[in-house]
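In the present case, backbone shapes were mapped to integers, as reproduced here:
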Amino acid sequence: MRVALIALVSGVLVLSVGYVNAQHHMHQGKMEHGASAVDTREFVKFPPQLVEHTIANMRDHLLALQEINQALAGSEPEKAGKIAEERLGMSSLRLHGAAEIATFMPQGMQDAGTAMHKAASRFAIQAQNVGVTGDLKPAIGALGEVMAACVGCHAGYRLK
């Protein structure tokens, strides 16, 4: 129980940090009366063919997160874990062409991507554990870490 509580709190903290960082970046882009200013995220230049490929990958990441949430809501944590590992986790890197894409990313963007993929694999393990422990909280915390990595990267970087 104590380990589950620590995992849940850790997940919430990681998610909170990602959210605060995203809010900080968003507020930096606003002027006093709500008018938008210049986008403060770091511009990352990719070859044109990789821009579309990368954006398609990120859209699939969003779709995978939706499917994971639906599986969890449907009391199917094992299915959620399988989706996470296959589409977001370390096992998905080859599918997305991550090695080729990473060469165009600044180190911070690479680190955020690696953090997301590792967090997704940790979530997959926690989701599988639900069948044994019956405790969904560690899985939810681990999913928060995945989403925090996404939020942090999108708050700091943009493609064109």
